[in-house]
Amino acid sequence: MQQPRHMSFLQTQSARRLLAWLGCMMTLSAWSVAETSKGDAGAGQVKAALCAACHGTAGVSINPIWPSLAGQHAQYLAKQIRRFRDGEREEITMQPFVQNLSDQDIEDLAAYYASLNPCP
User: Fold this and answer.
1) Taking the chain, what is the end-to-end CA distance rounded to the nearest angstrom?
2) 39, 109 contact by CB (below 8 A)
3) What is the separation of C-alpha 97 from the centre of its chain, rounded to a whole number of angstroms?
4) Is the pLDDT of residue 106 over 90?
5) How wide is the angle at C-alpha 46 spanned by C-alphas 118 and 109, nearest 5°?
6) I need a labelling partner for 42 at 20 to 30 A (CA). Which of 15, 26, 49, 69 fits?
7) Could you report the per-residue pLDDT of 47-92, keeping only the tens digit for each?
8) Rounded to two decimals, what is the model's pTM?
């Protein structure tokens, strides 16, 4: 049985829309990854040595009052660390650790923690 002509036209239009949408999403995804890969996870691992005392060696805290950082989004982590450093977010225990971090240090730390497996 042959499909009516208007059905194949609708299916073709839907397929074109789907392909266009997928193309846009792939482009946005690539742009998003490029925007978030400012840090060097390897350098961040070295810089995270002091952070491990509270946030765990693999970014998973053993104390419920200190957050686990493993698997968090790099942009989120960088924003929060900057807020601590710049005094926009106050936490007396964080201040000594973040006060001398450069923007690149922060990006490296964020990239490192984002690269880790989140806590179960």
Assistant:
1) 54
2) yes
3) 21
4) yes
5) 50
6) 26
7) 999 999 999 999 999 999 999 999 999 999 999 999 999 999 999 9
8) 0.69
